[in-house]
Amino acid sequence: MRNLLNLILICTLLSACSEQKEALDTWVHADTGSYSAAISPDGKLLLTAEIGGFGRVWDLQTNQVKYSVQHEEGSAGGIVAAAFSASGDVLVTVEQHSIARWVAETGRLTGYWSWPNLTAVAVSADGRYALIGSNDNQAVYFDMVQGKMRYVFPHHEKVTSVALSRDGRFALTGADDWHASLWDLGTGEHLWSKNLKYKIALVALSDDGEFALANAYIGDAHIYATGGKGSLVSRLDEIKMTMVSADFSDDNRLLASGRAAKAIDIWEVSSGKQRETWEPKVKYKVRPDSATILDLKLDTNAKTLISESSTGIGQRWAIK
After folding, report:
1. Residue 89 burial (CB < 10 Å; 0-12/13-18/19+)?
2. Which of 67, 98, 119, 213 is 20 to 30 A from 91 (CA-CA)?
């Protein structure tokens, strides 16, 4: 009898652990899936770069397409990265060999530059500057109004991820040379680097520039204080994890992250403790049952979260 009760208890616990969290809202955006996606900081607009098609910008309040974007005629599904400005006025899209700047509300093209070997992009709060990562072992801080490079941030291998603080103080770059590096946007000076013992999958900065996240492929994720020499604030309490997207809450208490292997996590910044974790719905019951969380955004009070997955599904979640 005791063994039976123990078995029932174990099954109940396993069932609870594997239960999927119910989304507040679910939207289908791309039937064939997406290469990349970007959600505007205010959670109103979404860019999806569809597999086998061009980019589309959605109004998330109505779940309707506002307009489509394409760098060149005939270039299908080429957007590898995109970002909105914090002001919500500017959208920047990147294909492997070009970068384009758009008016976010209307889709009007305001700048286009041929640029080889691109990998990642972040946009300044006012939409003037883009931080552009490349396979050429560098990231460039580029003035899109004057069409000039302001700073070049070198690495020893290709740059895989870039981030800008909303307050305009810092740039953060991550590369295949195992290093995440912080840079001063006032002077272009290198402030510090951290070696995570493997290629960097993702870097992110809090809006106020106080905290920096760095994650290595199938490895550790660390949160650092940007001041001084970059002291370690916390190590997220899970190993062998690859992050694709992340967002700090406005008050820097929480970090939301999306994994390459389907899961969404909520972490405490100060301790690195995992507050919540769940797996979003996928469209079809297939194996492997997987979806990359391409982008996510917390709302102002960190009460809800919007996510977009590589299956072309967007969802809104309540945060405990």
Report:
1. middle
2. 213
